[in-house]
Amino acid sequence: MQKLKQWRPRQPIGIGTFIGLSLVVGMGSAACTGNMRFGQVSPSQGAESTMAADDAVNGKNSSARTSALPQASSVEETPDSLVLPLALLSPEERADDLMAVATGTHLNQSQAVPFDQSRARYLLAVDARTLGQPTDAIAHLENLEADYPGMESAILYQRALAQDASGDLDAAQQTWQRLIQVAPNQPFAAEGLYALGQREGESNSPYWEQAIAQFPSHPRTLDIARAALETDPNQPQMLLLLAHHGLHDPNIVTVLDRLTQDYADQLQPIDWEAIGFAYWEKWQYDKAGKAYDQAPATPLNAYRAGRGAHLGGRIQDAIAHYQAAVQQFPEAKDTAQAFLHLSRLVRAESALTYLDQFHTSFPERQSEGLLARAKVLEKLNSPLSAQQAKQSILSQYSDSDTAADIRWEKTQEAIDAGQLQQAWQWAGQLVKENPKSSWAPEAAFWVGKWAKQLGHSQEATQAFNYVLKTYPSSYYAWRSATQLGWDVGDFQTVRRYSPALTVDWQRSPLPAGSPMLQELYLLGQDKDAWGLWQVEFQTPRDPTVAEQFTDGVLKVRVGQYLTGIFLLDNLDWRAREDGPFTADVATQTSTYAYTVYPFPYRDVIRAWSHQNDLNPVLVTALMRQESRFQPAIKSVAGATGLMQVMPATADWIANQIDLDTYNLTSPQDSIKLGTWYLSYTHGEYADNSMFAIASYNAGPGNVAKWIDRFGTRDLDTFVTQIPFPETKGYVTSVFENYWNYLQLYNTELANQLQRHQQ
After folding, report:
1. Catalytic center residues
2. What are phi and psi of 634, to 5 degrees?
3. 563, 529, 527, 532: which is closest to 548 by C-alpha?
4. CB-based contact 256:244 (threshold 8 Å)
5. Based on the domain organization, do 607 and 753 belong to the same domain?
6. What residues contact residue 681 under an 8 Å CB cut-off, 6+ apart?
7. Which of 421, 390, 426, 391 is nearest to 408 (CA)?
8. Distances (CA, A) of 591 to 27, 465, 504
9. Residue at 655 is within a domain
10. Each residue's pLDDT tens digit, 325-336
């Protein structure tokens, strides 16, 4: 089992700053940048813990019977089991082993743990129903709840589904009724209420009304709201239900627009807060700012009212809201960024007054205040005072991110002036004083490159080894590995590099969630675990690290890769640390690594990569950057699908390969077209993958101009000279993805890195 030793740069401080995931797409680009967070925005009414619901099923002493189910854990430990290692296999691949465990005839039956036979029967039932064999499913589930305490409501749910599929509607009706009677507070009861209401065929079914009242955040309840709106679209309460709990709904922005345009006079401040939050999470910052303006007066809401206006181009409104925030909440954490924004928006003389207040209210952020002051002093034609402020940062706050920014700026100035020795010294100082800065991996790598150019070969080797050991998941670790001669593929060889790929990972309990949720997750029943989590997760706007980690993992497991990966990538600044499961602990787990770098569509990627003579890891790395594996995603420019192919480019490719029909949202078609085009771009540049990847993003015309302008003598230097920031970031991100996939899924490299760390 592999882990990625994570290097995590510090994120800018201040909720609402315009940072976040930049989803860069090729052949017509879309940048999706911002603070993304999907989830509930108000507590679920009547939601109770799974353990409490187990009491309703099993009696007062049920806690003793359910204790063997896995518990949420802050320590990553793989449970012993004959069944759990089979959870991620296909029904066909695991059928014989599951049947052997279920019947007690497995060759290693002596190693079975409590509940393994029950787990095997449960999965056999799920698989049978999936394969269209509901009668077999019913047989596997017979009396299973007696042997599988803590899973009663899940078993009843599966039995009702199987009975429905078998055509025995009366038996299914009785099972749905039993489910809501014996487990009324369990999230699975929402499934029963939904099914019973659906049978009545009335949008105002009492069952559906009960689901809305008791489980407003459950996915089935949101289905009820959508169904009601299809019958009568003029139902503001149903729109509000979606606004509060349906952030993962693909049409949520339309819902929010309808509420703000048609029902504004009916909305309460708490509704405006929910709407503002939802707009914010969908990157609709201007609309979010207007909604937050009508939300309850809190430091965060006041700040976001200003920031939304700022990002929406309403500068005078932004100034007014920022001023209101600093007046109402001068010492609140969320207000700090408002002071800094004001210093950039108002006249220089007024800016200094705000920075004086910032200095008094936020002493822990003095380095940022000094840098802002330096910029204001430059506007006031006081370069000496500005320089003194920057020098104070370097001397008094040497280990701050602000000091790192100044050192990197000095490094770049020295390079531009042709002063290689000075650049080397500035970069070395940055690495020493600011090792956690986002600039540090790049600076450390260039310390090695420049040392090599200056004839200091020993220092160069030390620098490259340092990057590999200290920042092993960075793009610059890969570049350092190539400099040290590791066989990991270089710009010129990576296309046809053919690494052996294996998945050596088994799930372990998540750090948050009920025992039933943990069991379903370990069994690979992700959709059901996700449904439980929607009810259990009560604090989506103020999550702990454990909660955001669990939320991100489950989102990825149900196919919400874009959001889930973002949440995991940003644990340190979007989540509240509460207990031993910190962001540092989280990012060292195998669960983190394999979730942030998932490998969906593996067989299709391998097939078309082979067809087009491409490294499948490189294709996966590009796809992760292009679409985050969302098959229907579409950029503002029109690029569509997993490989983000522009329609016009797709037509041209289809003509080249005699393809009559295709669908860009189809994974098969997108990968087929995208890999052909990636192969074509490689052919245009003599199989140089760096140029091919840059061309995929910026187009062959631009890359040709850059080659003429910068030459090809040093490809690392070429990457830094790419004049499009988007393309420069795209190239480094794709190859960083490549490097991390390689060290996760290639055992040989993983072992080599482990030896290097030791």
Report:
1. 626
2. -140, 130
3. 563
4. no
5. yes
6. 691, 692, 693, 695, 696, 700
7. 426
8. 33, 27, 12
9. yes
10. 999 999 999 999
CATH number for the domain harbouring residue 457: 1.25.40.10
Structure tokens at 313: 């181009």
Write down which residue in 443, 461, 485 finishes a domain: 485
Could you tell me if residue 151 is inside a domain? no
Q: Determine phi and psi for 544, rounding to 5 degrees.
A: -75, 170
- Sequence-ordered list of residues with C-beta below 8 angstroms from that of 179, at least 6 positions apart, any chain: 153, 156, 157, 160, 188, 189, 191, 192
Question: How far is it, in rounded angstroms, from Cα 546 to Cα 552?
Answer: 10
Single out the residue in 485, 517, 544 at which a domain terminates: 485
In sequence order, what DSSP letters do the residues of 377-414 get, joined into one string? Answer: HHHTT-HHHHHHHHHHHHHHSTTSHHHHHHHHHHHHHH
Number of domains in the chain: 2
Convert the pLDDT of each residue in 263-318 to its tens digit.
999 999 999 999 999 999 999 999 999 999 999 999 999 999 999 999 999 999 99
CA 678 to chain centre: 26
Quote the Cα angle for 413-419-423, to 5°. Answer: 60
Answer whether 159's CB lies under 8 Å from 141's CB: yes
Q: CA 650 to CA 663: how far, in whole Å?
A: 10
pLDDT for 724-752, tens place per residue?
999 999 999 999 999 999 999 999 999 99
* CB burial of residue 159 (10 Å; 0-12, 13-18, 19+): buried
Residue 665's φ and ψ, nearest 5 degrees, are -90, -5
Domain presence at residue 701: yes
Cβ contact 87:522 at 8 Å: yes
Q: How many of the other CB atoms lie within 10 Å of CB of 108?
A: 10
Is 515:66 a contact under the CB 8 Å cutoff? yes
615 in the same domain as 474:
no
Enter the pTM of the model.
Answer: 0.89
Nearest CA to 53 out of 217, 173, 197, 180 is that of 180
Q: Domain limits at 412?
A: 403-485
